[in-house]
Write the C-alpha coordinates for this entry.
Amino acid sequence: MLGFSPNSLYLCIMLETGVLREITPLGEQDFMYVADRHKKEFDFPIHSHEIMELNFVENAAGARRVVGDSSEVIGDYDLALITSSGLEHVWEQYECKSEDIHEVTVQFLIHFEDEHSPFHTNPYRSIYEMMVRAKRGLAFPMSAVMTVYPRLTKLATIDDKFLMAQELFLILYELSKFDDAHELSSSTFAKVEVNSDSRRVQKVKDFINGHINDDLRLEQLASLVGMTPTAFSRYFKLRTGKNLSEYIVDIRLGQAARQLVDTTDSVSEICWACGFNTLSNFNRLFRKRKGCTPTEFREKYLKTKIVI
Protein backbone atom coordinates (compact mmCIF):
# COMPACT_ATOMS: atom_id res chain seq x y z
CA MET A 1 0.00 0.00 0.00
CA LEU A 2 1.26 3.40 -0.95
CA GLY A 3 -0.61 6.18 0.73
CA PHE A 4 -1.27 8.51 3.57
CA SER A 5 -2.96 7.52 6.80
CA PRO A 6 -1.54 9.10 9.96
CA ASN A 7 -3.45 6.82 12.31
CA SER A 8 -1.75 3.73 10.87
CA LEU A 9 1.46 4.73 12.60
CA TYR A 10 -0.13 4.05 15.98
CA LEU A 11 -0.56 0.26 15.68
CA CYS A 12 1.91 -1.30 18.11
CA ILE A 13 2.71 -4.26 20.32
CA MET A 14 4.66 -4.17 23.56
CA LEU A 15 7.95 -6.08 23.67
CA GLU A 16 9.31 -7.75 26.81
CA THR A 17 11.81 -4.88 27.17
CA GLY A 18 8.93 -2.41 27.42
CA VAL A 19 9.67 -0.74 24.09
CA LEU A 20 6.76 -0.52 21.68
CA ARG A 21 7.14 -2.50 18.46
CA GLU A 22 5.34 -0.56 15.75
CA ILE A 23 3.20 -2.55 13.34
CA THR A 24 3.59 -0.75 10.03
CA PRO A 25 0.85 -0.77 7.38
CA LEU A 26 3.06 -2.38 4.72
CA GLY A 27 1.92 -5.71 3.28
CA GLU A 28 4.10 -8.40 1.68
CA GLN A 29 3.95 -6.78 -1.75
CA ASP A 30 4.27 -3.19 -0.54
CA PHE A 31 7.41 -1.08 -0.78
CA MET A 32 6.80 2.18 1.05
CA TYR A 33 4.40 4.21 3.15
CA VAL A 34 4.27 7.99 3.52
CA ALA A 35 2.58 10.01 6.24
CA ASP A 36 2.57 13.81 5.84
CA ARG A 37 0.92 15.52 8.78
CA HIS A 38 0.67 18.70 10.83
CA LYS A 39 0.28 18.38 14.59
CA LYS A 40 0.60 20.33 17.84
CA GLU A 41 2.75 17.91 19.81
CA PHE A 42 4.85 14.76 19.77
CA ASP A 43 2.83 12.14 21.63
CA PHE A 44 4.11 8.83 20.25
CA PRO A 45 6.28 6.86 22.73
CA ILE A 46 9.66 5.31 22.07
CA HIS A 47 9.41 2.42 19.62
CA SER A 48 11.13 0.31 16.99
CA HIS A 49 9.95 -1.44 13.83
CA GLU A 50 11.12 -3.93 11.23
CA ILE A 51 11.34 -1.58 8.27
CA MET A 52 13.45 1.48 7.52
CA GLU A 53 12.41 5.03 8.23
CA LEU A 54 13.28 8.48 6.93
CA ASN A 55 11.75 11.08 9.24
CA PHE A 56 11.59 14.81 8.50
CA VAL A 57 10.46 17.35 11.10
CA GLU A 58 9.86 21.05 10.46
CA ASN A 59 9.03 23.91 12.80
CA ALA A 60 9.79 21.94 15.98
CA ALA A 61 12.77 23.74 17.51
CA GLY A 62 13.33 22.55 21.06
CA ALA A 63 12.04 19.02 20.48
CA ARG A 64 14.36 16.17 21.39
CA ARG A 65 15.33 13.34 19.06
CA VAL A 66 16.27 10.08 20.80
CA VAL A 67 17.82 7.35 18.65
CA GLY A 68 19.35 4.47 20.58
CA ASP A 69 21.54 6.01 23.25
CA SER A 70 21.77 9.33 21.39
CA SER A 71 19.74 12.30 22.60
CA GLU A 72 19.84 15.63 20.74
CA VAL A 73 17.68 18.77 20.84
CA ILE A 74 16.72 19.70 17.29
CA GLY A 75 16.34 23.04 15.53
CA ASP A 76 13.70 24.24 13.08
CA TYR A 77 14.49 21.38 10.68
CA ASP A 78 15.50 17.79 11.37
CA LEU A 79 16.02 14.81 9.09
CA ALA A 80 17.10 11.36 10.24
CA LEU A 81 17.41 7.96 8.56
CA ILE A 82 17.15 4.70 10.52
CA THR A 83 17.79 1.37 8.75
CA SER A 84 18.17 -0.99 11.72
CA SER A 85 15.07 -3.01 12.61
CA GLY A 86 15.66 -3.05 16.36
CA LEU A 87 16.86 0.48 17.02
CA GLU A 88 14.58 2.35 19.42
CA HIS A 89 13.75 5.95 18.56
CA VAL A 90 11.36 8.77 19.37
CA TRP A 91 10.87 12.50 18.87
CA GLU A 92 9.85 14.05 22.20
CA GLN A 93 8.11 17.34 22.91
CA TYR A 94 10.76 18.44 25.45
CA GLU A 95 10.99 22.29 25.07
CA CYS A 96 9.16 22.61 21.75
CA LYS A 97 6.48 25.33 21.87
CA SER A 98 5.30 25.11 18.27
CA GLU A 99 1.58 24.88 17.52
CA ASP A 100 2.16 23.65 13.96
CA ILE A 101 4.72 20.86 13.74
CA HIS A 102 5.13 19.48 10.23
CA GLU A 103 6.31 15.87 10.03
CA VAL A 104 6.88 13.64 7.00
CA THR A 105 7.54 9.99 7.82
CA VAL A 106 8.61 7.63 5.05
CA GLN A 107 8.75 3.94 5.92
CA PHE A 108 10.14 1.57 3.32
CA LEU A 109 11.76 -1.81 2.84
CA ILE A 110 15.00 -2.29 0.89
CA HIS A 111 17.06 -5.47 1.17
CA PHE A 112 20.27 -3.54 0.65
CA GLU A 113 22.50 -6.10 2.38
CA ASP A 114 21.44 -8.99 0.15
CA GLU A 115 24.51 -9.99 -1.88
CA HIS A 116 22.40 -10.10 -5.05
CA SER A 117 20.93 -6.65 -4.43
CA PRO A 118 21.68 -3.92 -7.01
CA PHE A 119 22.92 -1.83 -4.08
CA HIS A 120 26.18 -3.76 -4.29
CA THR A 121 26.76 -2.39 -7.79
CA ASN A 122 28.58 0.86 -8.57
CA PRO A 123 25.55 3.06 -9.42
CA TYR A 124 24.08 2.46 -5.95
CA ARG A 125 27.32 2.38 -3.98
CA SER A 126 26.86 5.71 -2.20
CA ILE A 127 23.31 4.80 -1.16
CA TYR A 128 24.47 1.42 0.13
CA GLU A 129 27.23 3.00 2.22
CA MET A 130 24.74 5.52 3.66
CA MET A 131 22.27 2.76 4.52
CA VAL A 132 24.97 0.83 6.37
CA ARG A 133 25.89 3.92 8.41
CA ALA A 134 22.20 4.54 9.13
CA LYS A 135 21.90 1.25 11.02
CA ARG A 136 23.02 3.39 13.96
CA GLY A 137 20.70 6.21 12.92
CA LEU A 138 21.96 9.02 10.71
CA ALA A 139 21.20 12.74 11.10
CA PHE A 140 21.70 15.05 8.12
CA PRO A 141 23.13 18.57 8.04
CA MET A 142 20.99 21.57 7.11
CA SER A 143 22.50 21.69 3.61
CA ALA A 144 21.22 18.16 2.95
CA VAL A 145 17.79 18.95 4.37
CA MET A 146 17.41 21.99 2.12
CA THR A 147 18.54 19.97 -0.90
CA VAL A 148 15.80 17.33 -0.54
CA TYR A 149 13.14 19.56 1.04
CA PRO A 150 11.14 20.13 -2.19
CA ARG A 151 11.07 16.40 -2.94
CA LEU A 152 10.17 15.36 0.62
CA THR A 153 7.30 17.80 0.97
CA LYS A 154 5.67 16.71 -2.29
CA LEU A 155 6.21 12.95 -1.84
CA ALA A 156 2.76 12.24 -0.37
CA THR A 157 1.06 14.08 -3.26
CA ILE A 158 2.38 11.73 -5.97
CA ASP A 159 -0.40 9.39 -7.12
CA ASP A 160 1.64 7.08 -9.35
CA LYS A 161 3.24 4.37 -7.21
CA PHE A 162 6.21 3.87 -9.53
CA LEU A 163 7.00 7.57 -9.66
CA MET A 164 6.62 7.78 -5.89
CA ALA A 165 9.19 5.01 -5.43
CA GLN A 166 11.57 6.65 -7.89
CA GLU A 167 11.24 9.93 -6.02
CA LEU A 168 12.34 8.19 -2.81
CA PHE A 169 15.41 6.77 -4.55
CA LEU A 170 16.29 10.25 -5.80
CA ILE A 171 15.98 11.58 -2.25
CA LEU A 172 18.21 8.80 -0.91
CA TYR A 173 20.74 9.41 -3.65
CA GLU A 174 20.90 13.14 -2.93
CA LEU A 175 21.34 12.46 0.79
CA SER A 176 24.11 9.93 0.13
CA LYS A 177 26.30 12.72 -1.26
CA PHE A 178 26.61 14.39 2.14
CA ASP A 179 29.58 12.91 3.99
CA ASP A 180 29.00 15.19 6.98
CA ALA A 181 25.85 13.38 8.11
CA HIS A 182 26.59 11.98 11.56
CA GLU A 183 25.82 8.62 13.18
CA LEU A 184 23.62 8.81 16.25
CA SER A 185 23.56 5.69 18.42
CA SER A 186 26.72 3.96 19.58
CA SER A 187 27.42 0.72 17.71
CA THR A 188 27.21 -1.40 20.87
CA PHE A 189 23.80 -0.03 21.85
CA ALA A 190 22.50 -0.48 18.29
CA LYS A 191 24.04 -3.98 18.15
CA VAL A 192 25.78 -3.10 14.92
CA GLU A 193 29.18 -4.45 13.95
CA VAL A 194 31.49 -1.74 12.65
CA ASN A 195 34.16 -3.38 10.52
CA SER A 196 37.47 -1.74 9.80
CA ASP A 197 39.36 -1.90 6.52
CA SER A 198 42.48 -2.53 8.59
CA ARG A 199 42.96 -6.15 9.70
CA ARG A 200 45.07 -4.98 12.64
CA VAL A 201 42.44 -2.55 13.89
CA GLN A 202 39.66 -5.10 13.35
CA LYS A 203 41.55 -7.75 15.33
CA VAL A 204 41.91 -5.35 18.26
CA LYS A 205 38.26 -4.28 18.04
CA ASP A 206 37.14 -7.91 18.10
CA PHE A 207 39.31 -8.55 21.15
CA ILE A 208 37.91 -5.51 22.96
CA ASN A 209 34.32 -6.60 22.22
CA GLY A 210 35.06 -10.03 23.67
CA HIS A 211 36.81 -8.72 26.79
CA ILE A 212 34.76 -5.61 27.56
CA ASN A 213 34.87 -6.11 31.34
CA ASP A 214 38.60 -6.90 31.48
CA ASP A 215 41.42 -4.51 32.31
CA LEU A 216 42.41 -3.56 28.76
CA ARG A 217 45.85 -2.03 28.40
CA LEU A 218 47.56 -0.45 25.42
CA GLU A 219 50.62 -2.71 25.70
CA GLN A 220 48.45 -5.82 25.60
CA LEU A 221 46.41 -4.68 22.59
CA ALA A 222 49.48 -3.52 20.67
CA SER A 223 51.14 -6.91 21.17
CA LEU A 224 48.15 -8.62 19.54
CA VAL A 225 49.13 -7.06 16.20
CA GLY A 226 52.90 -7.05 16.66
CA MET A 227 53.33 -3.30 17.12
CA THR A 228 54.88 -1.13 19.80
CA PRO A 229 52.38 0.70 22.03
CA THR A 230 53.37 4.12 20.65
CA ALA A 231 53.16 3.02 17.01
CA PHE A 232 49.83 1.25 17.50
CA SER A 233 48.34 4.20 19.36
CA ARG A 234 49.12 6.49 16.41
CA TYR A 235 47.95 3.87 13.91
CA PHE A 236 44.62 3.32 15.68
CA LYS A 237 43.93 7.07 15.85
CA LEU A 238 44.76 7.46 12.16
CA ARG A 239 42.44 4.61 11.14
CA THR A 240 39.49 5.32 13.43
CA GLY A 241 39.72 9.01 14.28
CA LYS A 242 39.64 8.16 18.00
CA ASN A 243 42.21 7.54 20.67
CA LEU A 244 42.23 3.92 21.81
CA SER A 245 41.14 4.91 25.33
CA GLU A 246 38.24 6.97 23.95
CA TYR A 247 37.14 4.06 21.78
CA ILE A 248 37.14 1.63 24.72
CA VAL A 249 35.12 4.06 26.85
CA ASP A 250 32.58 4.54 24.05
CA ILE A 251 32.16 0.77 23.61
CA ARG A 252 31.72 0.26 27.35
CA LEU A 253 29.24 3.12 27.68
CA GLY A 254 27.19 1.81 24.74
CA GLN A 255 27.05 -1.62 26.35
CA ALA A 256 26.11 -0.07 29.69
CA ALA A 257 23.31 1.95 28.08
CA ARG A 258 22.01 -1.20 26.40
CA GLN A 259 21.93 -3.02 29.75
CA LEU A 260 20.19 -0.10 31.43
CA VAL A 261 17.37 -0.46 28.91
CA ASP A 262 17.23 -4.26 28.57
CA THR A 263 17.84 -5.43 32.14
CA THR A 264 16.83 -4.66 35.71
CA ASP A 265 20.43 -4.91 36.94
CA SER A 266 21.48 -2.16 39.32
CA VAL A 267 23.67 0.68 38.09
CA SER A 268 26.59 -0.64 40.14
CA GLU A 269 26.21 -4.15 38.67
CA ILE A 270 26.22 -2.71 35.15
CA CYS A 271 29.23 -0.55 36.03
CA TRP A 272 31.36 -3.57 36.98
CA ALA A 273 30.02 -5.76 34.16
CA CYS A 274 31.10 -3.20 31.57
CA GLY A 275 34.65 -2.85 32.85
CA PHE A 276 34.56 0.41 34.80
CA ASN A 277 36.80 0.46 37.86
CA THR A 278 34.73 2.77 40.08
CA LEU A 279 31.09 3.77 40.23
CA SER A 280 31.96 7.46 40.46
CA ASN A 281 34.08 7.24 37.30
CA PHE A 282 31.27 5.42 35.49
CA ASN A 283 28.72 8.07 36.48
CA ARG A 284 31.08 10.90 35.51
CA LEU A 285 31.88 9.46 32.06
CA PHE A 286 28.25 8.54 31.38
CA ARG A 287 27.07 12.06 32.18
CA LYS A 288 29.84 13.59 30.08
CA ARG A 289 29.07 11.48 26.99
CA LYS A 290 25.30 11.02 27.30
CA GLY A 291 24.30 14.27 29.01
CA CYS A 292 22.64 12.53 31.96
CA THR A 293 23.42 10.01 34.70
CA PRO A 294 22.85 6.26 34.17
CA THR A 295 19.81 6.43 36.47
CA GLU A 296 18.35 9.38 34.55
CA PHE A 297 18.97 7.57 31.25
CA ARG A 298 17.07 4.50 32.47
CA GLU A 299 14.23 6.63 33.83
CA LYS A 300 13.96 8.51 30.53
CA TYR A 301 13.44 5.24 28.66
CA LEU A 302 10.95 3.98 31.24
CA LYS A 303 9.09 7.27 31.10
CA THR A 304 8.58 7.03 27.35
CA LYS A 305 7.62 3.34 27.35
CA ILE A 306 3.90 4.00 27.49
CA VAL A 307 1.21 1.64 26.23
CA ILE A 308 -1.26 3.56 24.08
